[in-house]
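Saturday, quiet lab. Running sequence design on the structure tokens for the scaffold JK sent over.
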């Protein structure tokens, strides 16, 4: 088992991943959270591996030690390719990873402390199908890693959990309506000047939180099943923990063999029991929504073109309506065949962050986001997912996501702004997206 993260301008590694990168980059100036000398640190790990004769496992002592190196001293994308090869990785890419892809920066204050990238190599891993109707796990499980370990843990801890499933969320603050409307007018003025065509503007709602975060995640899944939900928690090298409850309906990017595809969402309509199919199509396929959507589809086509075989990029379907418990969404699917000289991390590097969370043109839109938003996005509008040993992967878009640290919960919401956006309607759309969390609160605690 191992972990890897980008945190405070350094690359941090632990466990098996540390061992792999020590071998690949033996001359680097690695430092340890145990304050050992660099030479002693590396020699201890390598000697332990040599004496054990087993490069697939690390001791408990090794798994709890973090080693780091300045990002200026290592090529991040090469290190990721080397460390992940033939392994299962689960984790996320934070939005601010953009600064290591393009010449950009993030100068705003962090709402919470988190890594810009974090992945872990699991010791226990099982695959199970879900019911598309109920989005619930069935009884058939395919064990990929650690079946015996899971059985031992079940035997050891069965019946011992007394964790409450109750949680309390209370609102604290967010961007005022007046500030939001003023910002939208400023963004529209930029668009009329030709600075960019579309910009995704977001703001973060803040709450206090009491209870187990996993209970909130379970409630979110039960209230509004979505195809790309996820939950994880991890500790930073400082020991500070973070928990993420995502109810995302959107796929950023996936790869199976040579097939790459992305499913951008742009266009949202509130759902109610009296909805008629004609009203849904009429409103979702209005001029504004179609214009917003096509801009992002074209941006995604351009991103995938960078790593695709010539002539393989195509869109099918275009303007598909997908319905969830609280909203209807406009979705398209962009396909490509990845060229043989590109890897999974190449496809990610050339398309991240996803266009649906930035705007178009992408770099100009991200520069505008930095000007107008008042917080560092962090995990929000990044991607949660996994990479497999055969170089396949699947990642969501981090939206409809609660991020918890200590007793604080953050739930950013946003939307695409174009030249014909109505500021009042845009404000109402962000409230509609926030309702996904607030409805869970009302549903669980009447």
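Result came back. Writing it out in full:
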């Amino acid at each position: 088992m191992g972990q890897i993260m980008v945190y405070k301008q350094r690359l941090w590694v632990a466990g098996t991943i540390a061992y792999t990168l020590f071998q690949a980059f033996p001359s680097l100036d690695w430092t340890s959270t145990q304050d050992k000398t660099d030479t002693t640190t590396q020699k201890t790990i390598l000697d332990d591996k040599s004496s054990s004769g087993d490069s697939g496992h690390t001791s408990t002592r090794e798994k709890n030690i973090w080693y780091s190196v300045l990002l200026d001293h290592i090529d991040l994308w090469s290190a990721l390719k080397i460390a992940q090869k033939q392994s299962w990785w689960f984790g996320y890419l934070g939005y601010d990873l953009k600064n290591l892809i393009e010449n950009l920066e993030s100068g705003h204050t962090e709402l919470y402390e988190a890594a810009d990238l974090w992945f872990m190599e699991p010791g226990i891993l099982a695959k199970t199908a879900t019911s598309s109707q109920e989005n619930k796990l069935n009884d058939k499980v395919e064990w990929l890693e650690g079946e015996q370990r899971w059985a031992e843990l079940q035997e050891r801890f069965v019946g011992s959990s007394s964790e409450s499933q109750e949680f309390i969320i209370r609102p604290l603050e967010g961007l005022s309506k007046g500030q939001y409307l003023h910002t939208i007018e400023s963004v529209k003025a930029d668009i009329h000047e030709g600075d960019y065509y579309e910009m995704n503007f977001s703001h973060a709602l803040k709450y206090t939180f009491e209870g187990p975060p996993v209970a909130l995640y379970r409630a979110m899944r039960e209230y509004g099943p979505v195809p790309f939900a996820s939950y994880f928690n991890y500790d930073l090298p400082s020991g500070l923990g973070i928990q993420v409850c995502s109810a995302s309906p959107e796929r950023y990017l996936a790869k199976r063999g040579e097939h790459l595809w992305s499913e951008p969402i742009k266009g949202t309509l509130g759902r109610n029991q009296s909805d008629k199919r004609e009203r849904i199509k009429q409103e979702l396929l209005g001029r504004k929504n179609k214009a917003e959507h096509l801009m992002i589809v074209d941006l995604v086509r351009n991103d995938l073109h960078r790593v695709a075989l010539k002539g393989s990029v195509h869109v099918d379907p275009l303007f598909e309506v997908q319905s969830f418990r609280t909203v209807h969404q406009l979705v398209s699917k962009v396909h490509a065949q990845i060229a043989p000289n590109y890897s999974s991390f190449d496809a990610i590097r050339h398309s991240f962050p996803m266009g649906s969370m930035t705007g178009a043109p992408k770099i100009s839109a991200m520069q505008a986001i930095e000007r107008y938003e008042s917080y560092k996005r962090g995990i929000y509008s990044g991607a949660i997912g996994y990479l497999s040993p055969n170089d396949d992967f699947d990642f969501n878009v981090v939206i409809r996501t609660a991020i918890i640290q200590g007793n604080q919960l953050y739930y950013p919401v946003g939307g695409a702004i174009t030249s014909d956006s109505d500021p009042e309607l845009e404000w109402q759309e962000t409230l509609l997206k926030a309702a996904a969390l607030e409805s869970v609160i009302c549903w669980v605690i009447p």
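Notes for JK: The first strand starts at residue 2 and ends at 7. The mean pLDDT is 89. Ask whether to fix the surface positions before the next round.
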